[in-house]
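We emphasize that the prediction below concerns an isolated chain of 264 residues; any contacts that depend on oligomerization or on bound cofactors are therefore not represented. The input was used exactly as deposited, without trimming of termini.
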Amino acid sequence: MQDPYSKELEVASAAVREAADRYVSDGDRDADEKQNSVGSFDIVTHSDVEAQDSIVNALREAFPGDRFYCEESEGNTLTDERTWVIDPIDGTLSYERGMPIYGTQLALFVGKEPVLSVIYVPVLREMYTATVASGARLNGSPIGNNTSRELRKCVVSTGDFSRKKQEWRDKHYELIGAMRDELARIRMLGAACCDFAFFAAGRIDIHIRFVNKIWDFMPGLFLARVSGAYVDEELLKEKSFLLLTQSKEEAEEFRQKVLSKVEL
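Result of the prediction step, given as a token string:
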């Protein structure tokens, strides 16, 4: 099957790699504090802005009619037009502190639906890509169809505490307590790109989070969907809560043993 987005994928992958290698890996980690809705500490580095500009310029040159919806820009809107959603550094606080859990990611939307995503984890030199036609890939090799396990053997990763709603932050504490004795291990990586990428590669069995900014979760969610993941669509639609598992059976056991203890 010919991929209708092969050119976009090629250009986007090159743009992300160039920006991450040039402006992030060897970039300026000096940071300024920025505001969020719950008043928790958050930052933006100079490298965020430089990497974003680099990606936008490369995509705009190749696709001059496209729109852009970026983390470090104001006035973002998602319309029916072709729109690139870009997060130049996901996991900025880890990046600023010198911790190697961060990445650069983007997704292309057509008619408000994702059709392509790219996630690059520069420290690991891992490039994750996804389109429906080409499937989910890691450095060009197919990934997905991962092993499904009983809950007590599962490693779960969870997004860090929401910067959107205090209610979500409180529920997050409850969820961690409810998971404590039901799963093998709990991980909080602090970078959505790594949560989703490692899930798609089969390194993590389950991922949960309250979804917020589209650039945070949509590149990875699209990658996970294309890789064959199971998504609890009801929870996502009604509660803005993402339960992502390797199989429907894992999701059902998680609901029974964990979510039954927490009123989302």
